[in-house]
């Protein structure tokens, strides 16, 4: 079963969690991560074509529910995603998501997909893409602080895209580190479980922070950040949630996806509104400098942006053809006469009688 063309669409292809896993194993997870990074990079090069807005968020004391829409004028996409750190106490995921890709010319959906797995993959692919541009040349060691659901994806993406081979892992919960060590065994890493953040960052050229607690936290302090490192800060992704001491931000060159969103949700929410940042798309297109020397501290204040989900949905749709890894979802009314929607409803009742 091939993925339908937009003009043939009388149903919506739906990729379930089961089919997403089947598709990813067919592609191969490292290849999926590099493929996603390539699509994300392509769309950063087209950045100025996209409609952009900070995500539409409903915040509560328990977490956040967000919609993330964007369009390049030809296709439209949105993602529904939540972030509820307390969920793990009840055996639930911190983040769940689904997304839709549509054709602008008709408004018809082209794809509906789970995005819990896909968000984990695209987040990691985005981090690795940024590190490809900003990390020190020859970087092979990463400190991975926070060993929860995102950690393995970050590690595998950094290996696939940037060549990271040594991981130094730390989590306040030793069981999380044990889990990550177990899952990453056999993937070509040298793995070191560390007893503190300070131990984890020793010798690391890349420091990734991906903790989940919804609070102003200081996971990484200024004295632990040496010259020349690249910091991949992805855990601070909603108001009231940060991971880095503000003095680190003052010393680093900070790169973001979309400033109006990051100033609300990222590490830079700690800083004045005029705090200088560089938009990552400018580095990709060569209109702004990235890493300039081996003493520079670069910091990616990554909160996730809608164009990256757009890229991920495009990538999955392009990989579906010929796989059969989707269901035909009867989501769209399709009357013989598009002006006679009521007639379609009435005839269905007549048939039932």
UniProtKB/TrEMBL annotation:
It comes from the Bacteria. Gene3D superfamilies: NAD(P)-binding Rossmann-like Domain (3.40.50.720), ornithine cyclodeaminase, domain 1 (3.30.1780.10). InterPro entries: ApaG_domain, NAD(P)-bd_dom_sf, ODC_Mu_crystall, ODC_N. SUPFAM superfamilies: NAD(P)-binding Rossmann-fold domains. PANTHER family: KETIMINE REDUCTASE MU-CRYSTALLIN. NCBIfam families: PRK07589.1 (NF005762). This is Ornithine cyclodeaminase. It comes from Paracoccus onubensis.
